[in-house]
Amino acid sequence: MHRRRLMQAGLGLSAGLFAGPLSRPASAAPASDLWPRWTAHDPASVRTVDHAAWSGFLSRHLVAGGDGVNRLRYSAAAGDRATLDGYLAMLQAVPVGGLARPEQFAYWTNLYNALTVAVVLDHYPVASIRDIDISPGLFANGPWGAEMATVDGTALTLDDIEHRILRPIWGDARVHYAVNCAAIGCPNLQRTAFTAAALERMLEAGARAYVNDPRGARVEDGRLTASSIYDWFQEDFGGTETGVIGHLRRYADAGLESDLAGIVDIDDFAYDWSLNDA
Fold it and tell me: Which helix (H) or strand (E) segment is 225 a member of?
């Protein structure tokens, strides 16, 4: 997921779970900016896209850590590059405008996540995806602005997929629990591919898992520290800290729900940009 505000603020992060206070310029996060050509869809379509290759790749190389973080064995995955490249080539040949909406959501999410893994493998070893400075522009950081795929004859960046397709078309804050930016602080890369049939279940599970993990939210001494995702993309979570807290309460398990009682604002935001490398 494209998380540039910290870099734009010129601040550094340590490799710890929560890495220091962040300044909060509202302009730091990319806006949700619809690219109209991608709104085409076929509600009557029963066509499905086969994501078995991506699920198989993940089953071989993604491992669940005892700390709740899913990590990828990038060194081992490099030897399975043909599978990943073949899957990406297949996706780019799909006439996506002829799919139904749920199938499109799964398509774009899997494409984003597979491209992210591919670009990390292209530059591995790296300590952080932020070190892959291939985006255009003098002050650009990371790979999010670089063209990486061609769909229906149109070149696309990771920014395009997340901020010009997924966020504006679906208007669903759970997008942020689905796309993965290869960082420890990000919601987990799921262990299987997204599919239309499993979409709602996977989105709900992803939201609940992240909100109840210290990466998502934690309360200490009555002070709430939340993931910087809720700051960078606050507009997707109600537009205010009150909206963010309401979102956290919606998915909070009993322990966090109790901790959030009486919380009216967020004291700090934090994020760990270390690579999700096993």
Answer: strand 223-227
Scored b (16 or more CB within 10 A) or e, 133-161 reads: ebbeeeeebbbbbbebbebeeeebbbbbb
How is residue 203 written in tokens?
């989105």
Tokens matching residue 278: 């096993």
Q: Which residues of 72-100 are buried (b: 16+ CB within 10 A; e: fewer)?
A: bebeebeeeeebbeebbeebeebebeebb
Q: Average of pLDDT values for 195-205?
A: 98
For 247-260, the pLDDT digits (tens) are 999 999 999 999 99
Rounded CA-CA distance 16/26 in Å is: 25
241-251 vs 199-211: helix crossing angle, rounded to 10: 110
Beta strand 268-270 with 62-64: parallel, antiparallel or unpaired?
A: unpaired
CA 171 – CA 167 distance, rounded (Å): 5
For residue 21, the model assigns a pLDDT of 31
What are the tens digits of pLDDT across the range 4-27? 333 333 333 333 333 433 333 333
Give the dihedral of Cα atoms 237, 239, 243, 247; nearest 10 deg.
0
Q: What is the pLDDT of residues 78-101, one digit of tens each?
A: 999 999 999 999 999 999 999 999
Taking the C-alpha atoms of residue 99 and residue 97, their distance in angstroms, rounded to an integer, is 6
